Please model this.
Amino acid sequence: MRTFWEKVLWTLWLLWILGSSVTCLLRPFFDNWPSFFTPEWISITAHPLEAPTLSHIWGTDELGRDVFTRLVFGTGYSLAFAIGVSLLTTLLGVWAGLVLSFLPNRWKASAALIVEVVSTLPLLPLIFIALALYPGQIVLVGILKAVLGWGPLAQLTRVESDALKGHLWVTAARSQGLPLRTILMKYFLPNLTFIAMSFFPLLVFSSLFTLSSLDYFGLGFPIPTPNLAEGFRQYHDSPEAWWLFVFPLLVLSSLLLGLHCLGKRRH
Amino acid sequence: MIRFLCAAFLMTAVIFFIYETLPTKTVDILFAKTASISSHSGPQKEQRAYLEQELGLNKPLAVRFGVFVKGLLRGDLGHSLLSRQPVHLLIFRQAPLTLLLALVSLGLALPLGFIAGLLLAYFSNRKSILLFRGLATSLLCVPSFTLASMLFVCSFSISSFVSALIVYLAALVPYLSFLIQDRFLEEEKQPYYRAALSKGLSRWSIFLKHLSPSCLATTLAFLPLGWSLFWGATLIVEPIFRINGLGLLAFESLRNQDLPVLLGISLLVGLSRLFLGWARDSI
Model:
């Protein structure tokens, strides 16, 4: 049973995520979007590094932009990236897990070795290499993260798929002459969806974690795209502006905390 | 051992091919970096051809990989594009500080995580432990750079080394403590625990005398994962505190597009992680 405060916190968390995602999705479709609610907007009356006031409830950053607005859009963009990467990782992981499960026995040891190597590849140094070759290519970072991050999910999927293979209904389906492809698509995938869904929040968590770390150094989203870590970078240069640290920390850590709890709960 | 060697070879190949075939612009970067300092003068096209020949870039990928592996076995990782010094020398020069940080942070994190996990499991039924569990979960969900930037701004009297150590411990201890807690709670379900309880032993003594030895294995098994977590954090934390270690070297190499150094560091991190995993499985 969830307590009252748990319900309140989850509602706030969902509202923030849905609100920021919907805002980011809708903005391109509206020509007369209110200019004061855009991440680039700088008010004539606002000063750089203005402490929270009624007009800027979370203060302004070093250029005089509204921190609240930038965090709303930053959440939306970061989540879009993290969800995209996680979807790609899930696709690769489930597919690889199925392939591993149905490989002939003589290939299994080699395949397990490949999964082990992929799972232990150093992600961040390789992302650094990619960014040194292609500075500011966030899509490349996403692809690299997905390509190197499918190992754990593949292992889980393989275990589950091996367990499914032992069921009588699989033997029955095969003895009735159903092709393997049909059995996989019709019967295995729906059963594996549960694994993928329970792993998904943790994948989003991991992607968001990596992205925000890169954003902190200006290696993630190209400037001036709003992101979740720019406030910390500015706080580094202007330590008196506490709101550049407190509010981004609140948003980032509660996003990650929510995803972590969701992942653990589903597991 | 053969499995480890195969995995190490495969990892070297994967890292090398990622480095070489990321729709490769490597030659352009090498050219831009070295054209200005190359002794060979002449038209740009010739200069480029000369550079490709000098660095062996005109050879097929498989041959280049063979040359790279041969060099790697001798400890030769190529030369830095920026300083023109051998990469292994640069790594050796900056590794001691990072290794010291790794040793101290992992050396502290293992006992601290074990104790925290033991306490979390022992008091798992009490409400007062919720606060500590909440704190540990929160630390798990706070990226290293947030804590590092806060410490950088606030702690003027603490040295960079200690600040970095705090960040590493904040990243490692909660992770390990939850693993240990789960392990203790699993062990609590075993028949020998109930047998010891029925013989009149106190819960605390059973935890310390009988459950702890089996949970110590989990602590040691955490080492490869802890090593990965440490590297994930050090590449972020060292540039923030300007600690002259491998994390800072990697970051500066990224800024200067010094690809051979990044390749060397990637290999070092990947192979050491693989080695620790193999050592854990062997033990």
